[in-house]
Design a protein that fits this description.
The structure holds 2 protein chains of 2 kinds. Helix content of chain A is 43%, strand content 13%. Chain A is of the alpha+beta class. Chain A has a domain of 66 residues. In chain A, α3 packs antiparallel against α4. Chain B is mostly helical. Chain B has a single domain, classed as Formate dehydrogenase/DMSO reductase fold. Chain B has 17 helices and no strands. Chain B is globular and about 75 Å long. Classes of the chains: A alpha+beta, B mainly alpha.
Chain lengths: 182, 464
């Protein structure tokens, strides 16, 4: 893969004070042909991820696979220990007495699925990532309090530093537009 | 199912809310909610009251360490445990603490799936309560092994001895259930904290605080794409934690039910233990929430609606527990098993009878006061009932364990259990540890989920 061309800025950021304004702006930007953008909000806004063009995540699949591996791993471990590595004859009962292996299999399933949900979410989100260009904008600290931000990234084919900034400046309810340096 | 839109799920319809106190007082904004909750953590100095409470809890934790050190030096003979009462206060306390933890998971997972918007302001500290309760619970079986430095033998690992654990034993199931529960509760809690840690990172002015919260927040920036995956992960975790929490106390009850001791060998144990766990857990949430909301002025966020709802859950689970007591006595008679019948009569008339009747009074009698609206509407009244239920649920575990063991099949092997000062010090020491962790949590982390509180505001809705 060829490294992407280095742009002068990371993108252009517009600030809003209501979720409605941010969603409307993201929709307008998509209608105008922008494709590479992200929005930032102090809480999950379902319409916002739709508006920036993010519809599906593979996370449920990751969790399903994790759960299945945990389940199979739990049974395999108990079978191997009880029937192969350390067989004990308890009152002539079968070595693979599976009903008594159900509780631990269940716990292994839940543990593996929960761990894949958490670490899968972090991995797909690319976290931990202590540095990100958006943090260079001073006002961005408000993204974790009460403000909403829309960033059109410079990797967008339609991105033009001044024209994009001007485009965002004409959105309803926009509080300000700033460039995001790298 | 994947999306948790604030519009439909977090807010019940206006009709359903008619006549009830709101789940958040009107007039709040995203900023006011954020500032109110984060200022408790970012405020410059700890209050004198906090220091006082923390010191007492810290002293009690030191008492726990003393008791444990003595136990490790001298062996578990320093406790009152004996033969026939090989399980005594240690297992009583273990089951009691684990049960308390269950309300936290119930609030954070089951009420989320049931779309109960009111859970939002109490889930964070209920989850913290779960973690700390599980930590306290773990101490007891660990030290009851007698040689806690060899406790890792419980885990399956390739040892030079060539010995492997016995997976047919409920005690092994317990190891897996409790360690899974502790891990998943910690993950769930931490995931829930990440966006709020980012808020603290952005709002703190102290460089060290910025750095610590910044590292813990892992660079969370509130991206819409991240939120989407985050909400998916959170819902999936809730879906996984729901059967998990039911399984944990079920497996704890298997420790008893799979044995052949009269009073333990019964099929009602799993549901009865789970209901008891939720009962005692909600009692503990009320015990903690009522003073905290008064001290930190959080009446806007933890409203009477929350207290009311928790009181109703306590009433319902309390009745399930009462049904369990009834069925225990009924089955002892109906089964025609003389040992079972003797066990029940011994509970009611034997040497531990005063504890049995106190338990019935605390768990079945006095909580019926919750039928009265005036009691449910009075924080003080509710707090008293919650303390009574905490005591009652501890006595329940004590009665189940000790009265079943002390007189079983052979009269020649009967005995009595008397706690020693080390039993008392260990038990009250864990209460100290629990409170100390809680004090630290309240001081250093947001005790109410800030980002979820933002979603229950009317402004959070996107107007189309």
């Amino acid at each position: 893969m060829r490294p992407p061309k280095r742009h002068a800025v990371y993108g252009v950021m517009a600030e809003f004070s209501t979720p409605t304004d941010a969603v409307m702006a993201a929709r307008k930007a998509r209608e105008a042909g922008y494709t590479r953008m992200d929005a930032y909000s102090p809480f999950a806004v379902e319409e916002l991820s739709e508006a920036v063009g993010f519809h599906h995540t593979r996370l449920p699949l990751v969790v399903l696979i994790g759960g299945i591996l945990g389940c199979v791993g739990g049974v395999a471990m108990q079978y191997w220990v009880a029937a192969v590595a350390y067989p004990l004859n308890v009152g002539g009962r079968p070595l693979f007495s599976w009903p008594s292996f159900v509780p631990i299999t269940f716990e292994c399933t839940v543990l593996a699925a929960a761990a894949s949900a958490v670490f899968g979410m972090l991995a797909l989100n690319g976290l931990p990532m202590p540095y990100h260009p958006v943090f260079n904008v001073g006002r961005f600290a408000m993204a974790s309090r009460d403000h909403f931000f829309l960033v059109i990234e410079s990797t967008d084919p339609k991105f033009e530093r001044h024209r994009t900034a001007d485009f965002l400046l004409h959105m309803d309810g926009v509080q300000g537009v700033e460039e995001v340096p790298h | 199912m994947e999306h948790k839109g604030p519009s439909e799920e977090q807010r019940p319809t206006a009709a359903a809310n008619a006549g009830k106190p709101p789940i958040i007082m009107p007039g709040h904004t995203f900023a006011s909610v954020t500032d109110k909750i984060s200022s408790i953590v970012l405020g410059r100095r700890a209050s004198l009251g906090w220091l006082f409470g923390f010191s007492i809890a810290f002293a009690m934790t030191m008492m726990l360490l003393t008791a444990i050190s003595w136990l490790v030096l001298r062996g578990i003979g320093v406790w009152g445990n004996n033969i026939p009462v090989g399980w005594a206060w240690d297992i009583t306390n273990f089951v009691w603490w684990i049960g308390i933890g269950h309300a936290g998971t119930l609030i954070s997972a089951i009420l989320l799936l049931l779309k109960q918007g009111w859970r939002t302001s109490i889930n964070r500290f209920a989850e913290a309560m779960t973690l700390f309760a599980v930590a306290c619970a773990g101490i007891f079986p660990l030290f009851h092994t007698g040689r806690p430095w060899l406790a890792y033998w419980l885990f399956p690992y390739p040892s030079t001895m060539g010995v492997w654990p016995q997976f047919r034993s409920p005690l092994m199931w317990d190891v897996f259930a409790v360690s899974t529960y502790a891990t998943v509760s910690a993950l769930f809690w931490f995931v829930g904290l990440v966006p709020d840690l980012a808020t603290l990172r952005d709002r703190s002015t102290n460089r060290y605080a910025q750095w610590i919260y910044g590292m813990l927040a892992m660079g969370w920036r509130g991206s819409a794409k991240h939120w989407h995956r985050y909400e998916t992960a959170y819902l999936l975790l809730a879906g996984l934690a729901t059967p998990l929490v039911v399984s944990v106390h079920t497996i704890v009850s298997f420790d008893f039910a799979v044995s052949v001791i009269p009073g333990w060998h019964t099929t009602i144990f799993p549901p009865y233990f789970v209901a008891g766990a939720i009962y005692s857990g909600f009692a503990m949430v009320l015990t903690l929430a009522i003073p905290i909301r008064a001290i930190y002025g959080l009446e806007d966020f933890i409203t009477m609606r929350h207290l009311h709802n928790m009181a109703k859950i306590m009433l319902a689970t309390g009745l399930i527990v009462a049904y369990g007591y009834m069925m225990e006595a009924f089955m002892a008679w109906y089964s025609g098993n003389p040992n079972e019948l003797f066990m029940v009569l011994n509970r009611m008339r034997g040497p531990y009878a005063p504890f049995y009747w106190t338990l019935i009074l605390c768990n079945v009698g006095l909580p019926q006061l919750l039928w009265i609206r005036g009691v449910r509407n009075s924080p003080l009244g509710l707090w008293c009932v919650s303390i009574i239920v905490n005591i009652g649920m501890w006595l329940e575990r004590f009665i189940i364990i000790v009265t079943s063991l002390h007189r079983d099949f052979l009269p020649s092997s009967w005995g009595m259990f008397h706690p020693t000062r080390w039993d008392f010090m260990t038990f009250f020491g864990t209460i100290g540890l629990f409170l100390m962790l809680l004090f630290l949590f309240i001081r250093f982390l947001p005790m109410i989920s800030i980002f979820e509180m933002r979603t229950i505001l009317p402004q959070a809705e996107v107007e189309e």
